[in-house]
Amino acid sequence: MQGFRTSSDKVLKWAFIASVSVVLLLILLPVLHAIQLSFYHSESFVSNKSWVGLGNYARILNEMIFWKALSVGLIFGCLTIILQVCLGIAFALFLDRNFPGLPIIRGLVILPYLLPTVVVALAFQWMLDGTLGLLTIWSEQLGLGRPSWFENPYLAMTVVIVASVWTWTPFVTVSFLAALQTIPKSLYESAKVDGAGMWSRFWHVTIPMLLPMLMVIILLRSIWMFNKFDIIWLLTKGGPSSATEHLPILAYRRAFLQYDVGGGAAVATLSFLLLSLLILVYFYYYPLEEKESSH
Amino acid sequence: MVYQGKVLFNVVLQMEIKMKKNNELINKASKPTQSIIQGKIQRREILKAAVAGAALFAGGSPAIHAQQKTIRFLNAEPSRDSVKALRVAAAEYERISKVKVVIDTVVPDDAYNKLQASIAAGTPYDIGTLAFAGHVFILADAGKLVPLNSLVSKYKWGPRILFPIKGQNYWYPYDYNFCWMYYRKDLYQQKGLKVPTTWEQMAENAKALTGDGKFGVAQPLGNNAAAQWMSLGYMWADGVKMLDDNFSLVLDNPTNKPKVMAYFEFMKKMSPSMPQGMTQALFGTVLGQYSGGQVAHAPYAGRLMEVIEDKAPDLVSKTGFFMYPDSAGKGQAVNHGYDGWVVLNTPMKDESLKFMEWFTENQYINFLHSAPLHFQPARLDVYDDARWRAHPLIEKHADLVEFMKSLLTRKDVIIRSVDTEGPRIDSRPGKMFETFAITEGLQNVIYNGMPASEAVDVMSKKYRTVL
Amino acid sequence: MIISSLRPEKELFDVPTLIPKTIDWQFTSYKNLLELTDYPLQFMNSIIVALAVVVITLIISIIIAYVVTRYRVPGKTMIVGSMLYAYMFPPLMLAIPLLSIFATLGLADSLIAVVLAHCTLTIPLGVWMLWGFFKVMPFDLEEAAMVDGCSRAGAFFRVVLPLSLPGVITVSIFSFLLSWTDYVFAFVLVSSDLNKTLPVGLASLIGSFDARWGELMAGATLIAIPLFLMFVFLGRYFIKGLAAGAIKG
To answer: Chain A residue with minimal CA distance to B431?
Structure first.
């Protein structure tokens, strides 16, 4: 780590400053604009605004639907992350061997992640169609009747969780698979020699080595899952009766459909603050700067 | 091309300035470093420029051109034929006037958001398409629309389609999309059924036609526009009013509340005759189910006939239609639906008005023909226009067309929708529409076992929060 | 899960009367799709945008990540942390002010705007990943190269870049994917049919009233297959890349 001494350093420095400025400009300006919107009351993005200060926040925090959306978001976020991580690790372990057709299987495993969300939503709607969906017909054949996938709040939540897990577990799988490659086999060998069984090896060798990667994945996925808009919107639009409506959907509906731009922006800002808190906590435990580079 | 050239030139110019600055720094460094750094920067900048240039040229669509006038038109009819009709009209207009008309097509649900986004960002479209009166009201109220009185006053129009705001017309409607009920005449014959005039009969008919994996009727019940267009007709037929002339909610007053409760209970009674998944059903779902023979009744407008002509022609002769019956056999209704154009207050507004005048004189019928039965003309003169009548489908389905026209002139038909309630157009009925309180009420009664009275109270409470 | 991914493909060939589980090997859906919509044009647009995004993301992420790991930079954490803000707001709300910014620059309704908007999503990820790579690369290697007469830039190109190739490829793939599948920004920022990208085109197909399942599924497959093939072949590098990124002390 050094200062910018030579002139070539200085060139790099200007390039750095330029890049960072442009990027932050493109990111922060819209964010600030959106936050600013939350302090006004407006029926659309073009109507006359009236300043209400924290009025929107007071109103939103008083509405049941905000807290419901928050809980939906938390439930959805937690469950999907837990499932994604567990399944992701399991798949990674499974794929961490060499067998014929590995590239193809690997490709198949990551396929869900490659599909645009729109396509995934369509596929699930297709499979869960009330009369013709594959899963509906199977469940009938299994004697379980025709479940109302999207009318029952619990089923709807399940569908949404399953779809999200299906789509984004590959991200975890592949990251984990990659990380697994970096664990020196010698560690496993010595553990085996010490008499450790498979589970014990996993718990005491694999997990500790991969903890940093795990934390990064969990952080990124938390942010993304909490804010995941497309998949839920496309599948249920937040229904039935807001059973699957989380903060991003609430914000969208308020601002773009229900003629309440300030309210929507307020919801979005609150969600943003929550996530910022999460990030701060993360940086506290896992700062970007380590004390000593151990390599 | 000139415009793109200009932008590219600017980009290159800025890079040259940056490079000059860097050059001063570089000159102080050692020779080999200099050349490498220079090379690196140059390569990077050139790469950026190349990419930018390529994207620009590949993109190919300018904003306001210095030399050629351009009008940007937001279209919300994405079907191939409608887009084609518009593009043909645009090309023709460019030929005669040298003004270019750029068409952007989006799905109807996105039109309003795209329109307001474009205005908010300072790059408004010049002409837009809207399907909700509330949206027209909001934009007009914010001063973003141009009055179209000169265009509108030339013609006679059907009922409840012009939405004047303080005497000005900001909206040029191009069609009605009333929703009524289609049914299978052949199945009726088989089972000896008659066209229902009451809810009882409707439920009975639906029940009689349910069985063997087929269902009596498809009524969407989700929190979406499809449900509010297709499933409320029965209630309107009974004369239910949601708002009075002061925009106060009267849905739960002593006159209306019992009717709404009865309507909820009727829908619940009919629900076993509906296929699974009605809360997910959208416009296309119902079309698919009827044309696939899975349901015997389907609510829709002219589009259903067009679809079965295309996909299930053997059903055409077997399909009949009727209006939503009421509870007592005395009235009937259709659910309101409509689309129209607005001209926005942009620097190009004079050109836009000229284009709209030309378009509505010369190309309107062509446009209507892209969905001949679904785009029910809002202008009365079209019905007598031989050019419109000359379309094969319109000729073939003269009875349906007569029926549709009669809806405009009969005095005993109720035409209503949630978003057109109230004495004049306003954003409040639009907000009511977006709460989907009534579809929630339906869901509460049908799926959650809530008593109808409670459901009406919950619904009214929700409506009051936006009034 | 793998089985589920195969299922959608099978149903693609269903006959319009929608009998489940019948496979009908006609390619009419595909033919219709290519003839009747702007699919080829949108495909080209999507590719151009995605490739541009990859290039710009790589260049900028490399600069930022490299500088952050090799030099003293005040406020490092803040800078990198605030890049994450792009992920924390509903994209549609950010898209409108972005459109406004681009409009003032004269870039509204251009693919450049879409490229830049996508970059705001891909660069934070790129910086995070490459940061991990450059961090674990000991400076001694570069020093050795510079002692041998390389300039700093030369050392970078000859030593650092090759070693972090997996990471670079990883970032490329992620960026490409993010750009290829984005709907919101492409929707808001582009306002003429000529500049539309694939997801937007697909959406209008869905929104049009005649439930054209056949063409829809055909479009979906055509979107997925190139990515699938790409991953089968590049999967190796991708995994190696993530592996090296995992070593974050």
So the answer is: A258
